[in-house]
Specification:
The protein has about 120 residues and is α+β, with helices and mostly antiparallel strands. The protein has one helix at about 1-20; strands at about 35-40, 40, 45-55, 60-65, 70-75, 75-80, 85, 95-105, 110-120. The N and C termini lie far apart (about 70 Å).
């Protein structure tokens, strides 16, 4: 009996390992992601483009810039599944900013991106 349980557990483990690459956590599925910002160095009030995946209006409500001490809301000008064009606030101070996406969900999530933009 113990041998059968051990064999069943080993088989279940092997199946999980084999299928593990195909498993996607439903909480992270189709999350918006920015891969690149152009231009990387910009002035307040200028327009930038963010390229990535799942960036359309059904997924992304807002794009924020944050320097860990404060955040600034940008004005989204154009939005598609792989691109967001946005205008930086004219009053934004110089510095290095991270991108924070706000999801369009019942309980919005704030997703920090791995890209930064430098404001001069």
């Amino acid at each position: 009996m113990a041998r059968a349980k051990l064999a069943a557990a080993a088989l279940a483990f092997l199946v999980l390992v084999a299928v593990g690459g195909a498993y996607r956590d439903p909480n992270t599925r189709d999350l918006p992601r920015i891969d690149r910002i152009e231009p990387a160095v910009i002035r307040p009030g200028d327009v930038a483009s963010a390229s990535g995946q799942y960036l359309d209006r059904s997924k992304v409500a807002d794009l924020l810039l944050t320097d860990r001490d404060s955040s600034a809301l940008t004005h989204i000008l154009e939005q598609h599944s792989t691109l967001i064009r946005f205008r930086l606030p004219g009053t934004l101070e110089a510095g290095r900013y991270s991108i924070l996406l706000v999801t369009r969900e019942r309980q919005p999530r704030f997703i920090q991106q791995d890209v930064e933009i430098i404001v001069q």
